[in-house]
Amino acid sequence: MSVKDDIDEKASYGEKGDLEKTVVETLPVEESDTGRRCFLLFIHASAYRREVLAESDYTEEQYNKLKRKIDLYLLPLMWICYGVQQADKTSIGTQATFGLREDTHLVGQQYSWLTTIFYITYMCFEFPSNLILQRWKMGRTLSIYMIVWGVVVLCIGFAKNFKHLIALRALQGLAECCISPGFILVVGSWYKTREHASRALVFQSANAGFGIIAELVLYGIGKTGATHPDEQPWRYMSFFLGSLTIVVGILCLFLLGTPSEVRWLTPEERRMANARIVGNNTGHDTTGIKNWKWKQALECLTDPCFWFAGVNAFLSSVPNGGLTTFGSIINTTFGFTNLQVILLDIPRSLFSVVYFILIGLVTTRWKNLRLYFMAFSTIPPFVGFLGMSFLPNEHQYKWTKWGCYFMTVPFVISLFLAWTLIPSNTAGRTKRTLTSSFTFVGYCVGNMVGSQIFRAKDAPKYTSGTVVCAVCFGLEFLLLCMWRVIYVMRNRRRDRAMAGDGLSEEQRIRLGKELGEKDATDFENPYVRISCTSIYPRSH
Question: Where do transmembrane segments lie in this chain (predicted)?
Fold first, then answer.
């Protein structure tokens, strides 16, 4: 009888200690350390006989029916939530062209600090908020945060001076800090790895899709203000967005959450939802877990992909912070009016939605393309920012410079798709939480820097700011290439190790799922496949 057959026979009845002893005694001396480790892991996981869900418990037809129900409830809700958040966060740029700076007597860099303070509190409360998401019910936490920031946005409409604005923007950053990482965790708790990119892109497309709706409403408010300038239309923009956010937050209290939390699943559907994602090998969806694992935290420091995630977020967010704060203002320097700037943002948003849909469809149908799309999406904005930097602000270049501005649209893909790599390729709840937090720290710091590199003394062309943005995209392209090389090397190393472990594919799948259920990290679980570069198809 072979070692593997001996283990198969004993695994069905032996105790953990007996099984490990059998392995140690029967493994030949010349067996590699990797093979020995894989056998021991297999036996160790087999010894824990709590119920482990299996995808084979249900039919493909049952899973497809459940997936349609999940999509119907979650995707529209997350699309609206994310769209409202983006509109709340970025509306300050539009409000600035409708008198916010003049009516609140802002001078010098004070306007830039309204964005900087937002991301300072966003960053400071990012990690605590992620801990709350891990330890309390995710859906309820996100809903309460959303209602709070809706109240804050509403209050911005009553601000009279810089002190009022900076205090409210600080509170807004505190309240909004958990929505993006929270939604990434929600996607990871409901969907298979190959579905992460497409589902995340659905709600992230609201960045542009809902932006069209918001821009049309803000245009209507602004046009009314143009005929009645004493009414200060930027205040009514805050009243509208804040009220809408509160209503959506209340709706989320009843509908948003993980499979273990929501009320719109039956007990059997809840079990099916968990069984459906067990093949991800990244653990379960249960929130309310208080076990923090320092070993996983230390592992982050030795994982280059942890650092890539944070630095990539920083490089992508420097231009984002600049465009969010000064995009509308820059467009007026091309020669457009404030109302025209709102309307000209609509084709940018439409193109962004189409681009998101295209990438979502392609990454769902064909695997391992995410990093290619991410790298490509840095090239047009690199060229666009260089064009804005070196073309003069003269009437004959008005539309050419707007074309350069239009070319910046794809850059968000390199940030948003990087977020989807976290639930797909990072296993272990503590490690995933830390990676998510570090990514959003990079996101916050980048946006802070981006809001400050556009200095008042550089107006109206802001050349130094646009050049810095172009440099960031060049560096990001190089980083993304390195990131993919690391993933390819890691997968090939694991493939070589598995080629000599003596286990069948069925045993590897079983072991990978059991280790995932035990909250093993992607370093500890040799059967976690890097989804965007796997040489062989994933086994789910």
Answer: 142-159, 165-188, 200-222, 234-256, 349-366, 372-391, 403-422, 465-486
My answer on whether 335 and 421 are in the same domain is yes
DSSP-assigned states of every residue in 256-293: -S-TTT-SSS-HHHHHHHHHHTGGG-S-----------
Strand boundaries in 223-376, DSSP class E: none
Q: Are 300 and 79 in contact (CB under 8 A)?
A: no
191 & 319 share domain: no
Cis peptide before 76 (omega within 30 of 0): no
Q: How many domains does the chain have?
A: 2
Q: What distance in Å separates the CA atoms of residue 267 and residue 250, rounded to the nearest whole number?
A: 24
Are 432 and 523 part of one and the same domain? yes
pLDDT tens sequence across 275-317: 777 655 554 444 444 567 888 888 888 888 899 999 999 999 9
**Residue 132 domain flag:** yes
Rounded alpha-carbon distances, angstroms, from residue 83 to 153, 213, 248, 349, 391: 14, 9, 11, 12, 33
What does the mean pLDDT of the chain come to? 79
d(C-alpha 288, C-alpha 131), whole Å? 10
What are the tens digits of pLDDT across the range 19-30?
333 333 333 434
- Residues 154 and 242 sit within 8 Å (Cβ to Cβ): yes
- Do 199 and 338 lie in one domain? The reply is no
Stated pTM of the model: 0.70
